[in-house]
């Protein structure tokens, strides 16, 4: 009755855990599963393919075409899956299909929701095994989100109808999920109810991957968890996610963090000689990591002592906002991503680019009337009211601080990069006053937004509703600098009386500067629209949630 369509890119270890846990905790069979696998250089899927030989493995050539073919070949019910999902409790796909068959008002049967996921909606209809609720009009996060690709069972007929009605090209799973939005879902989804197992959700989403080298992950602060490191751990060192231990951990949220990323090593029959060699190698690795741990400890102590506070002149968040209220200027902002690009590295939404890196480095020293450059105030100033995730992140920024000290001008006055992501940065803050002031800056203005296609599709609360008019110019959501000449040409066609808001990652910095030189007022608005939406929804700011927030859209 059911087909399972799984999306995977760059995560063979995590995909192994998805398939292993699905087959262990459900009545699924390998032959029901199709994996759409997006191959990447230096990422090896051969091992996981051999481990699950009856799965239908499809190497992605064009996502939309491959997706539609998989849907066409599917059975009457479809469950989509993503490779960062791990199943943790017993569930029955057959029972889920039967429930949909006998309850026409139910759109999907979720395997990730249940009484453990808080807060719960009030309009619950309960029986001994199943929760059912009306998603339309529901205010509780996750319960008001009927279309998702983690682990919900849908009717094939509904999936086909939604897919065929899509308005933009489906380039990847993010685009596919984003085709249903807050604005169109009531119109496009006729069935207004959802259902789940009653006692507990049966799956979690473990958000740990970092593609860039600028972030490290908390489950082991001496080890990188980018997809290439995990590929080596899985393919070369025989590590796996320990689904048994993961299943023993409780959760009251869907997206969990690094503490759930528990590794185990496949047991092997080692000779005594080889066993001693492995122990010696493990000891050597610990000794090699020890200086890094000492460095991080010393860096943290130096940062907390205030040793960096007077090295550069950076306005605080409030001072930056006051400056923006009192003066008319363009601004661009630097963070760890821009520093990575300037150092010749790549980040999730912008591959390494020497030309872009060079321009970014030059912009750090710019001091012109009518233009402000931002760097994070908290990089240099220990702030007590940051949320714990950002605070811990700040401790490990020794390389970034060193780069800024070497490449910024001490005589320049910099604004605070965090101006556009206050809700994600602070734990305690007068958020109401801040957003009132920011919205006042936008109120009544004619605005043109330059952003990646699809990056704003999921926003429920629209910060730009206060503007007099809003127009959009779309560029690539990934690797925007590869289309820079065309973007700049399009941007220069905008009326110079309009305020230009740019949301294009590192490329935004260069574009704002070039537009400023051409006579425009342009703001590198970054994550502000998403941050405003998260604030209005009062989203929790756990490690997992903040990590998810900064992922590419």
What oligomeric arrangement do these chains adopt?
Answer: single chain
Specify the helix fraction band.
25-40%
- Number of DSSP strands? 22
- Order of strands, main sheet, comes to 3-2-1-4-9-6-10-8-7
Give unreliable regions as ranges.
210-223
Please report the distance between the alpha carbons of the first and last residues: 33 Å
| Count of runs of 4 or more consecutive helical residues | 22
- CA-atom Rg in angstroms: 25 Å
Topology:
Layout lengths: L1 E8 L2 H14 L7 E6 L7 H6 L4 E4 L3 H10 L4 E6 L2 E3 L5 H10 L3 E5 L14 E2 L3 E5 L17 E4 H9 L8 H6 L6 H4 L4 E5 L5 E4 L20 H9 L3 E3 L1 H5 L7 E2 L6 E3 L6 H33 L8 E2 L2 H10 L3 E4 L2 H7 L11 H10 L7 E5 L1 H4 L7 H8 L2 H10 L5 E4 L5 H4 L5 H12 L3 E7 L16 E7 L8 H8 L7 E5 L2 H12 L3 E4 L3 H10 L5 H7 L4
Parallel strand pairs: 1-2, 1-4, 2-3, 6-10, 11-13, 15-18, 16-17, 17-18, 19-20, 19-21, 21-22
Antiparallel strand pairs: 4-9, 5-11, 6-9, 7-8, 8-10, 12-14
Structural overview:
Helix content is 38%, strand content 18%. The chain has 22 helices and 22 strands. Helix 20 links the parallel strand 21 (499-503) and strand 22 (521-524). Helix 12 crosses helix 13 (354-363). The model is unreliable at 210-223 (pLDDT under 50).
Keywords, please?
4 domains; single chain; 553 residues; nine-stranded mixed sheet; 22 strands; alpha/beta
Short description:
Helix content is 38%, strand content 18%.
């Amino acid at each position: 009755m059911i087909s399972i369509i799984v999306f995977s890119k760059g995560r063979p270890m995590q995909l192994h855990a998805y398939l292993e846990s699905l087959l262990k905790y459900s009545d699924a069979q390998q032959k029901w599963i199709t994996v759409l696998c997006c191959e990447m250089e230096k990422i090896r899927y051969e091992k996981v393919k051999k481990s699950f030989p009856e799965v239908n493995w499809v190497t992605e050539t064009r996502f939309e075409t491959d997706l539609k073919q998989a849907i066409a070949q599917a059975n009457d019910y479809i469950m989509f899956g993503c490779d960062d999902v791990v199943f943790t409790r017993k569930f029955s796909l057959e029972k889920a299909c039967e429930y949909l068959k006998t309850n026409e008002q139910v759109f999907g049967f979720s395997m990730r929701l249940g009484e453990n996921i808080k807060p719960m909606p009030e309009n619950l209809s309960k029986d001994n095994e199943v929760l059912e609720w009306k998603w339309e009009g529901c205010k509780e996060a996750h319960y008001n989100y009927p279309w998702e690709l983690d682990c919900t069972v849908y009717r094939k007929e509904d999936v086909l109808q939604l897919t065929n009605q899509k308005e933009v090209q489906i380039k990847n799973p993010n685009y596919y999920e984003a085709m249903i939005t807050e604005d169109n879902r009531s119109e496009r989804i006729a069935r207004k109810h959802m259902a789940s197992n009653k006692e507990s959700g049966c799956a979690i989403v473990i958000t740990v991957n970092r593609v860039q080298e600028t972030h490290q992950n908390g489950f082991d602060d001496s080890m990188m968890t980018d997809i290439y490191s995990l590929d080596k751990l899985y393919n070369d060192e025989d590590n796996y996610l320990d689904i048994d231990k993961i299943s023993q951990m409780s959760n009251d949220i869907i997206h969990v963090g690094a503490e759930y990323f528990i590794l185990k090593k496949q047991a092997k029959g080692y000779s005594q000689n080889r066993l001693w060699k492995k122990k010696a190698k493990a000891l050597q690795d610990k000794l090699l990591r020890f200086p890094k741990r000492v460095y991080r400890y010393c860096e943290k102590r130096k940062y907390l002592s205030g040793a960096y506070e007077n090295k550069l002149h950076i306005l605080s968040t409030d001072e930056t906002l006051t400056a923006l209220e009192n003066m008319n200027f363009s601004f661009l902002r630097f963070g760890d991503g821009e520093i990575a690009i300037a150092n010749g590295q790549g980040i999730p939404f912008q591959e390494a680019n020497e030309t872009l890196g060079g321009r970014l480095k030059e912009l750090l020293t710019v001091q012109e009337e009518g233009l402000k450059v931002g760097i994070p105030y908290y990089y240099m100033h220990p702030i007590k009211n940051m949320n714990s995730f950002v605070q811990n992140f700040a401790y490990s920024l020794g390389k970034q601080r060193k780069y800024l000290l070497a490449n910024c001008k001490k005589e320049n006055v910099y604004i605070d990069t965090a101006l556009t992501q206050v809700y994600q940065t602070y734990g305690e803050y007068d958020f109401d006053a801040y957003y009132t002031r920011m919205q006042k800056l936008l109120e009544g203005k004619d605005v043109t937004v330059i952003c990646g296609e699809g990056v704003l599709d999921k926003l429920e609360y629209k910060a730009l509703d206060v503007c007099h008019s809003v127009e959009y110019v779309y560029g690539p959501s990934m690797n925007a600098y590869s289309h820079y000449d065309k973007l700049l040409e399009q941007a220069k066609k905008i009326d110079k009386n309009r305020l230009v808001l740019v949301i294009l990652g590192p490329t935004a910095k260069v574009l704002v500067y070039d537009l400023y030189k051409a006579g425009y007022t342009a703001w590198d608005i970054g994550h502000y629209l998403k941050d405003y939406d998260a604030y209005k929804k009062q989203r929790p700011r756990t490690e997992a949630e903040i990590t998810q927030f900064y992922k590419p859209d």
